[in-house]
Amino acid sequence: MKVIFMGTPDFAVGTLEALIKAGHEVVAVVTQPDKPKGRGGAMAQSPVKEAAKAHGLTILQPVKARNPEFIEELRAFGADVIVVVAFGQILTEEVLNMTKYGCINVHASLLPKYRGAAPIQYAVIDGCEYSGVTTMQMDLGVDTGDILLTEQVKLDKKETGGSLFDRLSIVGADLLIKTLELAQKGELKPVKQTDEESSYVKMITKSMGELDFTQSAVTLERLIRGLNPWPSAYTHVKGRMLKVWDADVVSDEEFKELVKKDAQSFKEAEAGKTVGITKNAFYIKCGEGYLKINEVQLEGKKRMFTDAFLRGNGKELLA
């Protein structure tokens, strides 16, 4: 097939590479304009643009994808299908219906659950047993088009937003190739989404990472994993930000046993307080249960396991 590919972040790169490997002709790659990044404000290219340059592909970076001149530029490529993976702009009806097979989207959830901007992180944050990828025939709604194919993925107990991102990127690339193969054979069987079963997830923000220890330890541990690696979960100790990268849930019953075994190291306290410090970890009281903190990053320092943190100035900060 002659394919126009639209995508921007790392998640989309695997699908672009899979299209090329499968022998499809990628006639153009559309990605977001370069943006300033970092303290120096140097212009940064999207991961998709970097991948497209490596393959010598034609690259388009419209400020607005609904611009009539851009739409006519797309039409001139004579593509059979437009593949969209986390592009980042809303497409007009004219673009959606431009090609024989329309616009096919790779979405990182099992639609209709988790329509919207951050399905991967929320699958972890909400404690889902399964997530997955859906290929969808795009329409004018937000992730509301007919479902083409799905593939389910079981989450690991220590799944993070980052690890699930990587896994679903691979699954999505393979699923898109299967979808195009069936489309060419005329064997796709689109299924309309059930709006009653749908849910939308908002964009992830840095402020979401602040840990509220009045919540349960189970909820907070999921949040820590879901926001790893970005924007990360954090708290403050003595006025300094402390990012929390890994933690385990300790139930009330388990904590009582720890107190019995080592009364000098553990104590009862209110939510948000450090209630125990051992050689390799420290424990924080939550609204329900406790968090055993295994890996942290103090403001201005490198990410480290808690034993290294405690050997520095950790114990003084937690006192």
Low-confidence stretches: none
Averaged pLDDT, please? Answer: 96
State the assembly state of the protein chains: single chain
| SSE pattern, N- to C-terminal | EHEEEHEHEHEEHEEHEHEEHEEEEH
Share of residues in helices: 25-40%
Strand content: 25-35%
Rg result: 23 Å
Give an overview of the whole structure.
The protein has helices spanning 10-21, 47-54, 68-75, 93-96, 119-125, 161-185, 217-226, 252-261, 306-318, and strands at residues 2-7, 25-30, 35-37, 42-44, 59-60, 81-85, 103-107, 115-116, 130-137, 146-154, 200-201, 233-237, 240-250, 274-277, 282-285, 290-298, 304-305. By secondary structure, the protein is of the alpha/beta class. The strands form four sheets. A seven-stranded mixed β-sheet has the order 5-2-1-6-7-9-10. Strands 12, 13, 14, 15, 16 and 17 form a six-stranded antiparallel β-sheet that branches. A two-stranded antiparallel sheet has the order 3-4. Helix 1 runs parallel beside helix 6 (161-185) and helix 5 (119-125) packs antiparallel against helix 7 (217-226). The termini are far apart.
Properties at a glance:
alpha/beta, six-stranded antiparallel sheet, 9 helices, 17 strands, 30% helix, 27% strand
